[in-house]
Amino acid sequence: MTSIDVHAHLVPPAALEKACAVPERYGLRMEGDRPVFEGSTPGAALNPLLTDVPNRPSAKVDLQLLGNWMDATGYTLPPDKGAAWSRLFNHELAAVASQKPDRFRTLATLPMQDGARAAEELEFAVRDLDMKGAMIACNIAGRNLDEPDFEPVWRKASELKVPVVLHPLHKIEPRRLAKYYGGNLLGNPFDTLIAAASLIFSGVPDRFPDLKIVLLHGGGHLPYQVGRLNHGYQVRPETKLAKKPPVDYLRWFRYDTVIHLPQALRYLLDLVGPDRVLLGSDDPFDMGDMDPTVIVAACGCTGHDAERVIGGNAQEAFRL
Known about the structure:
By secondary structure, this protein is of the alpha/beta class.
């Protein structure tokens, strides 16, 4: 059984070096170990494991789908520079993957500040670089994913039959989340809920029923608060753009296993079905799960269902 990790991050060192050498083209400079994109303040410190190509994967998996680190997406860049940065990053990520073709596949980063350019980059990355989909943030510099500007991305991903992995990038009341590592522990799963609810209530699943969206960290808060969304759909006029109640869209999404509690994973499997759950690690971060098959066994998932979660579902969704 081949274990396939759909949630891993890598920043190619060559992408940073080349971009910083021509800041007027790419809009990126480094302040120590912190990337600074034009239009933004310094990001989080670059975890050195993110650029450690020789020792990846860190997680105990056979195959990884590598995506960008969300602090390196460059969504605040002007569209021209954002497109240039995405193209450079994708070229260099594909080059890294080619060093270990039996271990790596890749997910494109997209210049989501311009939906049309993001769609163009997705098509290039899939057709010219053999990337298997895209990994984007749950919000684009604070903009929710229901905005019309992002429609070309959903259309193109649906046309190409490739998944879009949504990764949280906490932008929620930072002062309230400043203590106790709250931006990650609390902000990330809430960001995923906002993204999923925005897609549902704006009718994206109705317009693109074949679009494949992967929600990380077990879907954030969505699977556990969908009853509240369902009730809101019944009683609030603001939610009526969707054709069906939110619970009916749960299986439109796919979910990873980075949830850290076997009982919660068991609930997720029972709720959405074992064909909608994929293995994830969040490699190389300390909030990840570096031995992700363990929780699959611990939640009582066995036999054919376990085979699907550990590798079969990813193989089918990403056409590996």
